[in-house]
Amino acid sequence: MVITSRDNPNVKRIAKLTKRSEARSEGVVYLEGTRLCEEALSSGQKAIEVIVAEDKISWAKEFTPDIEPMVLSRNVFTKISQTVNPQGVAIVINEPKLTSDIPSNGKDIYVVLENTQDPGNLGTIIRMADAFGLSAVIVSPTTCDPYNDKVIRATMGSVWHIPIVRKTMDECFEFFARTGTETLAMHLKGDILSAEGLKLPCAYFIGNEGEGLTDETTAKCSRLVKIPMKGKAESLNAAVAASVIGYELSKLL
Amino acid sequence: MVITSRDNPNVKRIAKLTKRSEARSEGVVYLEGTRLCEEALSSGQKAIEVIVAEDKISWAKEFTPDIEPMVLSRNVFTKISQTVNPQGVAIVINEPKLTSDIPSNGKDIYVVLENTQDPGNLGTIIRMADAFGLSAVIVSPTTCDPYNDKVIRATMGSVWHIPIVRKTMDECFEFFARTGTETLAMHLKGDILSAEGLKLPCAYFIGNEGEGLTDETTAKCSRLVKIPMKGKAESLNAAVAASVIGYELSKLL
User: Fold this and answer.
1) Measured between beta carbons, which residues in chain B are less than 8 angstroms from residue A232?
2) What is the pTM of this model?
3) Hey, which bits of B41-108 come out as E strands?
4) What percent of chain A is modeled with pLDDT above 70?
5) Which end of chain A is more exposed for a tag (fewer CB within 10 A), N or C?
6) Which structural domain, as residue segments, surrounds residue A179?
7) Domain final residue pick, B94, B117, B147
8) Of the residues B64, B94, B124, the one at which a domain ends
């Protein structure tokens, strides 16, 4: 049966979930569009609801054969969609729990985000960490929501692949001390970044886009490093800095 | 005199310029907000018009003392502003001409963007190029507008500092052949990226976000390289890839 009214209670319920704050409070993630949905499904995420436009029933049959989809008229799908040209495909999944344990294999690289605010940066860092073989992305409680739509898009699927761990800075330092993990902060007075002279396990800290790392976190790190910059700009985008360090450290893997 | 009507002809004219397409067709750039305006002015760009909210006249006196500002009521400024919480400060500058000559000093690094579409990526690449000391950012005719507001924001001022050159791929290869510039394309079958074994001048090509480099451009490059990725994700964000190569090559400077 095709639902043709925006006032249908099921449509109202889904429309609420398209707002990230509502979805988060219910412990779910709303994903829209073929790429986002298919990436999540192929990574083992289970759809708990499937919503398709009437011309996309075949998509649901192919990708979520075990679930009865909610079928909306094109018009209604477009009304609840958050995108400009909706593809007519959406799923709801349970929000993955942020891992509470930091994984450890003795040769780990961790990127620790103290207070990343830009969803594009967070997503790009998650994607980079997955590409360079980092063990986990560790996010502070104040870092932006990893299941924000913009973050998920920027990860190109990596959000489903690499452990994302939420920890306070104190918890991080306690773990790193216990496991003999070197801790790096970027600082203008630091040593020039180079894989030579560093060893794993190693964690590096990336601060807020505008303010950088807090002095407190910088002071607790075992080592200060700097990315050599031979040009005129004095700083790099946070995701670029995180990526250059991830690339350099991954030479030790 | 404070302009209090949205229908004032001068206000209408400025409101048009807040749309990038209109500003471009008039050969100007509209910049709003203290950071963007001050970055441009301190980099030597000249304001040809200054627009401030009535409570920001002191800003104009400080930063653009030679120009009579157009003073708008807060209400009118907010109406024409493209931002959610307008700071009440805007300038119009002449659009810098994209350089037509590729600068050359014999030890150059160039990043060449074949068809970059995302303004955030383009801005991040311009900022990175300025930080790592590249000689120029070369953009294809299809690459997105460098004076797009989102690009300018992401460059953090570097858009005013590093030469941005618009060239076709054919023009690039002709120049690189003439100057003995090594040309790098990323390819899965390439050599592992390393500054050792490479020499300057050197240009590297970055393709479109979705499709990568065209086969035609890849085939014309003198050398194929790959960024080693020891994790599971198979690709990197275009700005991250450009930054890692820029970082590695800058070791040769």
Assistant:
1) 130-131, 133, 158, 161-162
2) 0.93
3) 47-53, 70-72, 89-94
4) 100
5) N
6) 109-250
7) B94
8) B94
